[in-house]
Amino acid sequence: MIRAVIFDLDGTLIQTEVLKAESYARAMFTLTAGHVPKEQTMGVFDRFVGLSRQEVVHGLATHFRSELQAALGESNMATLGEALIEKRLEIYHGILDNEELLSRHFCSNTLGLFHRLGQEGKTRVLATMSHLPEARKVTTAMGIFGDFDLICTRDDVENGKPAPDIYLKVQEHFGLKTEEFLVIEDSVNGIKAAQNAGMPVFAVTNAITRKSVHDCKLLPSEFVVDDLTQLEARVIAFITNGSLQKE
User: Fold this and answer.
1) What is the domain partition of the chain in residue ranges?
2) Which CATH number fits the domain 4-15+105-241, given the four candidates 3.40.50.1000, 3.40.50.10490, 3.90.180.10, 2.60.120.10?
3) Quick count: other Cβ atoms within 10 Å of Cβ 110?
4) Which residues form a coiled coil (predicted)?
């Protein structure tokens, strides 16, 4: 029996994966004096979705190392990463301060599921690789910050997704069996983290994650939701029946 539902944040409750990708792309374009077009960064960003900030920065800085070195006159990877983090956070925090912009990226269908689960008395948890200040700002803008029974962020665990640490921390907090949790994720790394923790998981896809989620073949098709209008019905059916019919 499912007693608690764990939601990822970025790309699941709000399409901040798109906004994060844009902030990294703009930062890379600026730091390389235009030698890395924004489309080029966006084109490789999907492989880093679901990872922590440090891991994303390391991946992008490694991928575009030669362009960053040429533009910044610096070869030390740590220094290149720090420059990328600083510029990207400057851009991203400006985005997070724009509540009107954020509101256009709310995932209304996932939010509908979130509110229905609350009405039905299910425990609702946030487990995100965002850091707490960002998670608090985003969920406050969404009006749901105080509705979670527990919030776990990258600040609470040693290893980020796809390691299972964040989900096992949630399990430890509530003292339930892993099969009593259900995870809602959007990325391959998030799916792997939930599966590594032994928890059932639904994937909600978006423009950035859809191809990689399907290509990884980690989930049966009935647990991959491309049309988010079907999300609530599928999740409630799984919670009620313990299984889903194959499509």
Assistant:
1) 4-15+105-241, 17-100
2) 3.40.50.1000
3) 24
4) none
Q: What is the pLDDT of residue 245?
A: 56
Phi-psi map region of 28: left, alpha, beta (phi>0 left; psi -120 to 50 alpha)? alpha
Q: Which helix (H) or strand (E) holds 204?
A: strand 201-204
Tell me how far apart the alpha carbons of residues 135 and 182 are, in angstroms, rounded to a whole number: 20
pTM over 0.90: no
Phi, psi of 179 (to 5 degrees): -75, -5
Q: What is the pLDDT of residues 155-202, one digit of tens each?
A: 999 999 999 999 999 999 999 999 999 999 999 999 999 999 999 999
Question: Which tokens go with 32?
Answer: 């390389």
* Amino acid at the residue 124: R
Instruction: DSSP letter for 15, please.
Output: -
- Tell me the longest C-alpha to C-alpha distance in the chain: 60
Q: How far, in Å, CA of 119 to CA of 194, rounded?
A: 25
Distance, in Å, from the CA atom of 130 to the CA atom of 161, rounded to the nearest integer, reads 11
3-state class of 5 per DSSP?
Answer: strand
Cβ 150 vs Cβ 126: under 8 Å? yes
